[in-house]
Amino acid sequence: MILLKDIKKSFGKIEVLKGVSFSLAEAEHTALLGKSGSGKSTLLYLLGGLDKQTSGNLLIGDKDLSKLNDEQLAEFRNKNIGFVFQFHFLLPSITSLENIHLPIKISNRSINDYQELITMLAKYLGVEHCLNKYPYQLSGGEQQRVNIIRALILKPRVLLCDEPTGNLDRKNSDKVINLLKQLSTEFRSTLIVVTHDHVVADSFPRKITIEDGQVIG
Amino acid sequence: MKLSFWKLLEITLQGRSTKIFFGLTVLSLSFSMAVILCNAGLMDGYEYILKTGLRKNTSDIEVTSSSGFFKVDNEFLEMINQDAITNYTGIIRTEGFLVHDNKSKGVLVNGIDVKEFSEINKLDIKISPKKNTIAIGSEIAKQLQVAIGDYITLTFTRGNQSFEELPYVTELEVSDIVHHGIHRKDSRLVYVKRSYLEEFTNSKGMVNTCLLALDGFSDSQIGSYIQDTEEKFFELGFDARPYWKNFSSLLEAVEVEKFSITIILQLIILIALFNIVAFINYNGIKKSQEFFLLRSLGLSFKSLYTFWTFFIIFIWAISCVLALFMTLIFDKVILKLPFLKIPSKVYELDHLSIHLGLNSILGIFALTFFWCLVCIGYIVLREKKKTILQGIKGQYI
């Protein structure tokens, strides 16, 4: 479902990814491990269509991301990719519910069609009382769970998580990882979690380790 | 891939400091536009007040004859044969002196038929039909310290053959003080009955000036009319002049000045635009996280660029409205504050107010809009260089 072939990415003269190749199946759960600066976040953003590789092929389904223009790539991201960021990344000026509505509005779909799913996910994640609150009124764990609802609301084919438990305690960390796994299984989404936490990584059936811009295991 | 303009605007303006910065940016642009509008408005106002004042007491066209006196009768009207002429009146004009209380002043005496004159002009001059009275310009009254009911001495100069039999001195009662609204006229013109001057000039039924009114003609139409008929009037020994002719060089100077000042004052707009650019840069840094998040969620660069375009247009539109409002306030203030009163001896007018033509308003708004487009171009170039990854990473690092 996801195929990376000899992916290279440079920023100026610095080569961050030096020929990364692997493939992932649909609904597969994978942890992307590596030290800080190893290139794992860069690889995650390439997978999410947030940047383009310098060379190599990146296919998600039948789409070659390098061949999509900005407009097509934006549409692709909206429909196929869900992001969960380390720092929750909710817009502070709008409520949690409005934050969840963002991908729906961007895709020009009707919010009414998603009302039921939002309620179900909010209940499932235990944040139904947070929906009308602003992000600053929520705890870190609550913000992260709202973030997960927003990432999953359009049932993406790929769910990309960049250190989603980075600033959570062990108990909350385990809870979030389990929720991500359960929901991505339910939605048949391929789950890729970037982490440097070996406990988190060990809970995944597949681990890809990146070091110095290359896959080492 | 759309998100409503208002939703993005809400995100853009979130935060007290951002709102204050935005408010000041709009205020600076609107103030800059108001400065230009006020300048152009004062120039337009000058032209408008001067022309209105002139038209009020000269009618549309003034005709004089190379042979001096002429009769304004059917023959004359047939001779000039102009269908556009709706009204006319003949005037006898001659130079004279007013003397009062050991003060004297050179004046232009207008012998008028009060009824005809009031029909062709908007000046309501009060001259007694029974006895010989005189109406004098307001500046003359001020200089000679004359009030209505006072007696004043009018003398005529010798030199013109027609006037050589004139008695030199006559005493008249002041029946009216005329406000022309134009300094030169207020300090120079006096009015007496035409029949009174006919008597002295032995020119019964004749005049040396004829005022013509045209059928609702605008200035440009009057100009074209004169141009079209100039040759014919010349052949008949007449000289036809538009009502602003005596002030045409002044009006031209004002027009040129208006253009130059508007161009020079564009610098103020440029400075205000720096504020917009500064605001966008500030916003780009402060709200980078939000905007790159929206892009990661599927908002395309085109949508974001469209938002910025509308955002700049939004700033421009609010600024236009505010600038007009500021101009209105200035227009009210200018008449109230004594230090803003213009020297009427220099500028001919006793007051000045803002009169903005639609062309001037649109011209100034369009020029500002052009600079806003330049601003949009800058934003597009700047934003296009950034990738989403750089934006998001910029927040993380």
Task: Characterise the protein shown here.
The complex is a heterodimer of chains A (217) and B (397). The mean pLDDT of chain A is 88. In chain A, the strands form 2 sheets. Chain A has a 6-stranded mixed beta sheet with strand order 6-7-8-3-9-10, with helices on both faces. A 4-stranded antiparallel beta sheet of chain A has the order 2-1-4-5, with helices on one face. Chain A is an alpha/beta fold and 217 residues long. The longest helix of chain A is centred in the C-terminal third of the chain and has 18 residues, at 170-187. In chain A, α3 runs parallel beside α5 (140-152) and α5 runs parallel beside α6. Chain A contains 7 helices and 10 strands. Chain A has one domain (2-215): 3-Layer(aba) Sandwich (Rossmann fold), CATH 3.40.50.300. Chain B is α+β, with helices and mostly antiparallel strands. Chain B folds into 2 domains: 5-53 and 251-396, no CATH class; 61-242, no CATH class. Chain B contains 15 helices and 9 strands. Chain B is elongated. The model of chain B has no long low-confidence stretch (mean pLDDT 82). The interface between A and B is medium-sized, with 30 and 29 residues.
